[in-house]
């Protein structure tokens, strides 16, 4: 005969939830000898707990040189795959299995294999933002920061397939003068920017600098005063105020920037602020970001800096 004991509501035990997630994560990292690698595009809370923040190239280098037993990769699938390729004996964890990439998804391995087979004499240069399957079919892997240099070094009599980003491929062709066969892939984030809105903002704010990533479309790049990789854009944005020896940039149009990259710019270098921040996302999302306690707490400790962020506009 079986009996069932009814548990009174006040006797029900609920799992303990850590009061301080940052401390709990730090303790778990130590227990597992783990390192947290995060892309620039991660939200501020993730950036705050990361051991290293960077672009695809920087993250790959960190993954290759780590002495940790576990890599927690706060990024998308292809980034975690790259870390595993470089560290086949380590445990690589991707916290969000749904974290995909529209650019990587735009180059299905079966379709690309057929494309490559149709052009057997071509050298295959693939942008690192692709799946492991595409990397395995490639002769050379490049990043947005070294793509021009790599293509320039390939003998001129060797035809080239460039994959998967057609916009980066076009930019490389323009910079090198080399004809390449482009795979027609793209990143939907970098194709959301409106040339019409950018021109309108230039007219309204003629002093603004337009900076862009080479994954943006040619119609956007032609208006940019500076084009570069994610890391290069961050360095350039920081240099604007430093070179002019002012407390903030009068106007800075961040075309091709993700909103959390602004968090990184300000948290690393409080001197770089925009009086007129020409932003490609909703004003509401930026307002939520700039009001974060961590952001505001950074500046009282920085002597001679001024925090001034106003007139949030959109260019997307």
Could you describe the 3D structure shown?
The structure is a single chain. By secondary structure, this protein is of the alpha/beta class. It has three domains: about 20-100, Rossmann fold (3-Layer(aba) Sandwich), CATH 3.40.50; about 105-180, 3-Layer(aba) Sandwich (Rossmann fold), CATH 3.40.50; about 195-315, Rossmann fold (3-Layer(aba) Sandwich), CATH 3.40.50. It has helices spanning about 20-30, 45-50, 55-65, 75-85, 100-105, 110-115, 130-135, 145-155, 165-175, 195-205, 220, 230-245, 260-270, 285-290, 295-300, and strands at about 35-40, 50-55, 70-75, 90-95, 125, 140, 160-165, 180, 210, 225, 250-255, 275-280, 310-315. Strand 3 (about 70-75), helix 4 and strand 4 form a beta-alpha-beta unit. Helix 3 (about 55-65) packs parallel to helix 4 (about 75-85) and helix 8 (about 145-155) packs across helix 9. The chain is globular and about 60 Å long. It starts with 20 loop residues before the first helix and ends with a strand.
Summarize the structure.
By secondary structure, this protein is of the alpha/beta class.
Question: Which CATH architecture of the largest domain would you pick?
Answer: 3-Layer(aba) Sandwich
Q: What percentage of the residues does DSSP assign to strands (E)?
A: 15-25%
Count the DSSP helices: 15
**CATH C-level category of the largest domain:** Alpha Beta
What number of structural domains do the residues give?
A: 3
Q: Uncertain runs with pLDDT below 50, 5 residues or more? A: 1-9, 241-261, 263-286, 288-316
């Amino acid at each position: 005969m079986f009996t069932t004991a009814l548990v009174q509501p006040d006797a029900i035990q609920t799992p303990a939830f850590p009061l301080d997630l940052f401390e709990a994560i730090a303790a778990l990292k130590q227990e597992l000898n783990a390192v947290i690698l995060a892309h620039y595009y991660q939200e501020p809370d993730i950036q705050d707990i990361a051991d290293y923040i960077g672009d695809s190239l920087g993250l790959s280098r960190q993954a290759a040189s780590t002495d940790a037993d576990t890599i927690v990769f706060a990024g998308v699938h292809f980034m975690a795959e790259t870390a595993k390729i470089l560290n086949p004996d380590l445990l690589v964890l991707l916290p969000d299995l749904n974290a995909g990439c529209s650019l990587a998804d735009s180059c299905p391995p079966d379709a690309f294999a057929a494309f490559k087979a149709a052009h057997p004499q071509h050298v295959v240069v693939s942008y690192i933002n692709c799946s492991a399957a595409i990397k395995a079919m490639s002769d050379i892997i490049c990043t947005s920061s070294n793509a021009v240099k790599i293509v320039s070094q390939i003998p001129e009599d060797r035809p080239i397939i460039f994959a998967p980003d057609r916009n980066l491929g076009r930019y490389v062709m323009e910079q090198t003068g080399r004809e390449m066969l482009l795979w027609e892939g793209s990143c939907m984030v970098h194709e959301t920017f409106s040339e019409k809105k950018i021109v309108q903002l230039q007219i309204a704010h003629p002093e603004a600098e337009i900076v862009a990533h080479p994954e943006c479309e040619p119609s956007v790049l032609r208006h940019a005063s500076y084009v570069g990789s994610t890391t290069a854009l961050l360095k350039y944005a920081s240099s604007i105020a430093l070179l002019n020896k002012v407390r903030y940039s009068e106007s800075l149009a961040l075309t091709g920037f993700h909103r959390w990259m602004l968090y990184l710019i300000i948290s690393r270098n409080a001197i770089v602020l925009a009086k007129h921040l020409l932003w490609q996302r909703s004003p509401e999302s930026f307002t939520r970001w700039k009001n974060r306690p961590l952001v505001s707490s950074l500046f009282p400790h920085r002597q001679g800096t001024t925090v001034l962020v106003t007139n949030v506009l959109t260019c997307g």
